[in-house]
Amino acid sequence: MASETFDVSALQDEIDALAAKVTKQGAEVRTLKKNSASDADAIGAAVKVLQELKISQKELLDKMEAATGGKDAFNRQVFDELILRKMFVIPSFEIHGGVKGLFDLGPPACALKAAMIDAWRKHFILTENMLEMECTCLTPEPVLKTSGHVDRFTDLMVKDTETGECFRADKLLEDAIDTLIENSPTMPSEEKEDHLRIQRQADAFTPEEIDELLIKYECVGPSGKPYSPSFPFNLMFKTSIGPEGTSVGYLRPETAQGLFVNFNRLLNYNAQKMPFAAAQIGLGFRNEIAPRGGLLRVREFCMGEIEHFVNPADKSHPSFPSVADKSLVLFGREDQLGSGKTKTITVGEAVKSGLVNNETLAYFMARTQLFMERIGMDPARLRFRQHLETEMAHYACDCWDLEIKSSYGWIECVGHADRACYDLDVHAKATNTAMLATLKLDQPQEKEVAKLKFDRKLLGKTFKGDQRVVSGLLETLAEDWTTFEPIATALESEGKTTVDGFEIEKDMVSWTKTTKKVHEIKFTPSVIEPSFGMGRILYSLLEHSFYQRDADEQRCVMKFNPQVAPQKCAVLPISSNPEANAVVDEIAQSLMESDLATRVDKSTASLGRRYARSDEVGVPFAVTVDFETLADDSVTLRERDSTVQIRLPKSDVTRLIFDIVHSRTTWEEAMKKYPVVTVNEDGEAEKQVGATVIEKTSRGTFSRPAEKI
Amino acid sequence: MASETFDVSALQDEIDALAAKVTKQGAEVRTLKKNSASDADAIGAAVKVLQELKISQKELLDKMEAATGGKDAFNRQVFDELILRKMFVIPSFEIHGGVKGLFDLGPPACALKAAMIDAWRKHFILTENMLEMECTCLTPEPVLKTSGHVDRFTDLMVKDTETGECFRADKLLEDAIDTLIENSPTMPSEEKEDHLRIQRQADAFTPEEIDELLIKYECVGPSGKPYSPSFPFNLMFKTSIGPEGTSVGYLRPETAQGLFVNFNRLLNYNAQKMPFAAAQIGLGFRNEIAPRGGLLRVREFCMGEIEHFVNPADKSHPSFPSVADKSLVLFGREDQLGSGKTKTITVGEAVKSGLVNNETLAYFMARTQLFMERIGMDPARLRFRQHLETEMAHYACDCWDLEIKSSYGWIECVGHADRACYDLDVHAKATNTAMLATLKLDQPQEKEVAKLKFDRKLLGKTFKGDQRVVSGLLETLAEDWTTFEPIATALESEGKTTVDGFEIEKDMVSWTKTTKKVHEIKFTPSVIEPSFGMGRILYSLLEHSFYQRDADEQRCVMKFNPQVAPQKCAVLPISSNPEANAVVDEIAQSLMESDLATRVDKSTASLGRRYARSDEVGVPFAVTVDFETLADDSVTLRERDSTVQIRLPKSDVTRLIFDIVHSRTTWEEAMKKYPVVTVNEDGEAEKQVGATVIEKTSRGTFSRPAEKI
């Protein structure tokens, strides 16, 4: 055993080291591709090295799977069958032929999602008094033009000039090269390498380059006609708002913009107090070109986004101490390029060492981890991966993705980004609206300013109607010497300078540098944004909750915790006796009245079969009404994962399950309070394995394992 | 007083009688307009009568308002200001200029909506084990073509041929006639009446008629050019799904279709058991041409829809007895056309008398009423109005709208429609998918069928590849003599007949009428559909919850009940003493840990001002930490509407509020358990008005009203 452990551990080290190399090489390739000076050969060579590394990586991973015997292997086929049969997730509009990338949630997934959203709302919004909003999906174009979305999310497309059918240009090129090589078995390897080099860069060409290449490779549409010139295709769903058809709208690709544009109202609502967070749960839409199966890349999805507005000069968080000791699995930038190993350290250390940029960002990472644990995600399959420099937007300070491991690999499920002042800045500028917060100073501060004197006559002659705009611009800049200084310098050295498109001459304005007492400082808040992909989290939770009982591989179980489980309790009669049925109804009614979703199964199937059915949809508890119940009003309560059963008065059932669901007690406590009984799955008392204690109670005689609990 | 009451009551009778006349005349006008044989004169005359009735009605209503002194008058201006300032509802994308018909919900409305949805889910879905689904908003065209939406929701539009600007044709015509009459003060009254007659029918003309009229009235676009011919404008938002741009999609105008297309999977999930209900909560979208202010007619809205599938031969409901004694305010078809008065009768009577078509429909009406009461809607402002025959779709059996009275009048907020088999039928036919449920018979039944014999040779010669389709069609019809009989009759009398487009001749098939034992009956379920407009309900709840304190009109209160209130408790220190602040934090923390949304207000404003702020957002309870708290750990707890305060140990606060919010106890019980104290709004003990009992308790000395509450 020891030697096997050693082998696996060494192999893991090898895998980790290789993963770091792959990441490093990937970054190298991206840097080369970004740099317009890079030549195609250099890029091609780097891509080739990357591909070879990936092949070695795959070999090592296969070796690892063989070594560990795939014991915990996830049976995708059985899982997928269960997910579809129990209507967790099904393709939308199936009977009409379906639509790629659209999925419906069925009854158990709806309840699970509702519980997850409820938990999210309590964990984030309620606990921190965040300002929740619900903005519309329909978004007018100017908003998304401002945010940059109208110009982003584009892939190059071409059309068949005969039929109008559209294609992704890079995919056509890739396919054409594949076909060429396939059909030319005698092609010299050097020539082949030239083609492959072009193929590897397919997504990096300009429209003009790709147009030339499509002609070079004789790509023609299905109709036999050549393709149209390539053009960018935007991934947002476009529509038209209002009857005129002139007002372009999009379905929002994220929920955040609705919060940014409402910043001033939110700040007022919060009585001007900073920092504060706004949050939104709602739909996002992306017209994906090639949606893959499952809930991981879909065209319509639920998001939960938090925008925490904070003074860029002070990104501390008042509640940081409450999470400072929480340990997280962090996969920092340097580790991705170096050791290839994650670090498990406390949030406090991560901030202290500078690994995570600031307290607020780290605070939310910890809160996200706690949320995932709260809803029952497997902590061993969670990690935070830092964005490489090459991955981040130019304005971002630091980004960490919570990645969840599923059978599809490590999937980004929650982004944590420090987006600096970018979002408020662009909307403020586009709408000419100040979006500022105020820091009241405890003591007034001296501030260096410029005092201006204008030659109004010259200004009027030069700028006419714009005269006041120009003087206003300069006055604003003069409020802070550091912003006015470059202008002063330019006017002195060059005699003129340009401010917002206006050419200012030295004669127009004179200035003196002076100081002024200020009692408050205005600033554009930074935004720290945790952004949750609820659909991906839901899917990951389904995978993490799924297992097959060791004793019987056919028996699938979803181990949802009682807080999020779609149904909280099953109620089953052991026989179809009408008296037993009445008790079942009475218990179910009582559970329902306490808002505990209940599953009644009076079918004639065996008790074992009925337990199995309730296990499949993850019902944590099952109450069984048996012959004793009719005599003494006691019932058995079975816990799903341990299959341990306790015996308790039927009148205690609702309160016990309510308290467990509301985290006011635990199953462990219940096992201490009530006798544990052993019965087989047909409800008959079984021989007790191991030492037992026989208990006589007012509710009857029970056996209980002696070494209990 | 008595005589005033008499006057008002007589006036009310007059108003009701007139309302009936208005309804009757309205129905008359609709019937005339529908009937293509009606001439314009008759319609015009009927419309004129209707308008005169409406004028009289307005006069009576004004008289009534004057008589009752407008005491309970709703102050829209104050209400609107509050709604906007406290961010209940705000226009979307304000800083970018906004978009008509799009609104955002701010923090208190989001919490209120979440609580409302949660209550809805528990009241309907959980209690009745409905199958909840979440289908996509993006919907491919064939689905909505099948449902009829692609051909419905159209208004006639014209374009300015120069600028392309669009207009509603009927509105242009109406405006043109207004202008003509305005500019022709000497126009003879007969001529004027002719124009007005045309104006009244503006929305009833065909495209050709309206085109002619626009020319006749010399309507030209803003550019001076004539309008384009009129064309239908669909109210659905159109988009394109997938990169090709060839797959037309719409944003769903209702959520129901997603449930209908999943009927077979849902039935399987329900183990083939009938009846059952599916439900969905989600967004709907309608590209309204002229959205009015407020939440009553918007372009993006939240709906909750239930589709209850039932055997058309048996529309009883197992839980009907549980609501049979519930009284509802019903405004039946006959009363709308006759007395003009509603009837308050029990659900049981309504079904027994045939007023409501069936048990299931009536059951849901009662459940809707109970839901409205549960979330705190004013029962005096709720009624169920039956659709007139002229209002219903041809396939519908019976429809009742729950109308809620707000300052905009009686507004339809929940539809209850028995839609018969229409929805499943159209999807089954369009997709060639059987959508049937099965009734297992306790005892086999004899059934009359036709036994067929085909002349296969002749069939083959005539229909070639379609041979089997034709024989299959006939075999299906032959399974029930009643469906085959018309064909048999036609073949015998005419020698031929047409079945689904195929011409069948007598020689092709012979038959014998016989009987067969059947053990089950297949049927297309009927759909009974309660459809909730959540946005309208939310808005109505805001109005019903709003009042101004008698003592001080400036003090606005939202009387949300504790179950749905956005925040459950305010916690306020009486002074800014750090010790008091620590207790405030401790209590707030404890409330939050029990998931009770809490509002902490440590501002320096007076206690009265801070109570008023918390009243504005409808916080039902306020805990005040005062000087005594620091001595004996007791706090006061104030109830919002009565402003009664009780004194209790701070450690009891969370449990008490949790229990009230979860309906496990009441404020009345709390007043019995804890001493009532009187303090002024600055937290100082006030002189007790009326007889008091002075209580000495371990928590201090309290005065308590002698006549207990």
TrEMBL record, chains A, B:
Coiled coil (UniProt feature): none
Keywords, alphabetical: Aminoacyl-tRNA synthetase, ATP-binding, Cytoplasm, Ligase, Nucleotide-binding, Protein biosynthesis, Transferase
Enzyme Commission identifier(s): 6.1.1.14
GO molecular function, one term: glycine-tRNA ligase activity
Record SUPFAM superfamilies: Class II aaRS ABD-related, Class II aaRS and biotin synthetases, S15/NS1 RNA-binding domain
Compartments where located: Cytoplasm
GO biological process: mitochondrial glycyl-tRNA aminoacylation
Domain WHEP-TRS: 14-71
Cellular component terms (Gene Ontology): mitochondrion
PROSITE patterns reported in the protein's UniProt record: AA_TRNA_LIGASE_II, WHEP_TRS_2
Location of the Aminoacyl-transfer RNA synthetases class-II family profile domain: 250-573
Subunit field text: Homodimer.
Family: Belongs to the class-II aminoacyl-tRNA synthetase family.
Record's protein name: glycine--tRNA ligase
